[in-house]
Specification:
Helix content: 10-25%
Strand content: 35-45%
Number of helices: 1
CATH architecture: 2-Layer Sandwich
CATH topology: Double Stranded RNA Binding Domain
Radius of gyration: 11 Å
CATH class: Alpha Beta
Largest sheet: 4 strands, mixed
Strand order of the largest sheet: 3-2-1-4
Number of domains: 1
């Protein structure tokens, strides 16, 4: 199964994510959990096949499990 990296970014008004492995894909939301869900749904849709996501969060950021 293809491994796809997802890089998360935290800003004052929410979170957003991008993937260097899926050209043109990005997602934004109010919190980390929302953006993870968007990634889990959106990346396989964009690729047109299933993929294993590898999540990268900025060092020092606290995310709810």
């Amino acid at each position: 199964m293809e491994i796809v990296r997802v890089i998360y970014h935290h800003e004052s008004d929410g979170w957003w994510a991008e993937s260097p492995d899926v050209e043109g894909w990005s997602a934004a939301g109010d919190n980390y959990a929302e953006v993870v869900k968007l990634a889990e749904e959106g990346i396989p849709f964009a690729l047109e096949h299933e993929a294993k996501l590898e999540h990268f969060v900025p060092a020092g950021e606290h995310v709810a499990a």
